[in-house]
Write a structure and sequence with these properties.
There is one protein chain. The protein is α/β, with parallel strands linked by helices and about 240 residues long. It folds into two domains: about 30 residues; about 200 residues, Rossmann fold, CATH 3.40.50. It is about 50% helix and about 10% strand. A five-stranded parallel sheet has the order 2-1-3-4-5, with helices on both faces. The termini are far apart.
Length: about 240
Amino acid sequence: MQNTFRISLVLIISLFSITIYAQDWPNLKRYQAQNDSIMKAPARDRVVFMGNSITEGWIKTHPEFFHSSTGNICRGIGGQTSPQMVLRFRQDVINLKPKVVVILAGTNDIAGNTGPATLDMIMDNIKSMTELAISNNIRVVLCSVLPAYEYRWRKGMKPYIKIPQLNAMIKAYAAKKRVVYLDYFSAMADEKNAMKAEYTTDGVHCTSAGYDVMEAMVTPAIKKALKTKPRKKCKRY
């Protein structure tokens, strides 16, 4: 009887946890309080970094880069895919009224974190975020997906093939929309399309040295974005 009660209790807790997660699938609560605080502060030049665990990890190794005095705002959430980012884009980006948004998305989609996703599906979400930003007078930096040869949590997805293909699509779209394309991949990949060993902790996530490379590249990209007027109307892709 006691064992049955324990099993039932575990099932109830598990179902409750799943329900809570399902109710906030994009994790809108994660940055809600911080966003409210920022919106109450005096307006200033802001740059929002939208992404997943790679973006989230950046603030852990380089907190000075995201110090309030810089105007840089980290909005990365570990494990997230591009459809989740689209759902929180208005709250975590647009409402903060940044001058620029730096979008880094796609690797978790390829890994299938929230279900199967084709490269076209990923691009649709990247396009949606870009168009939302442009329509709200926010300049855009579209980042290449960082190199990865294999996902330890999801074997056999062949990111070493799919990531370069997705990056080619992002680069072409950036050119057509006249927004900045930031090619992290070329600077951080080895001959096998894996991330160079000195830049990664596990083949996907970055070391401090990896973030040093990204920081050195993103700073001029942001300056370029501020000087580049995007194309608001363009042909369907």
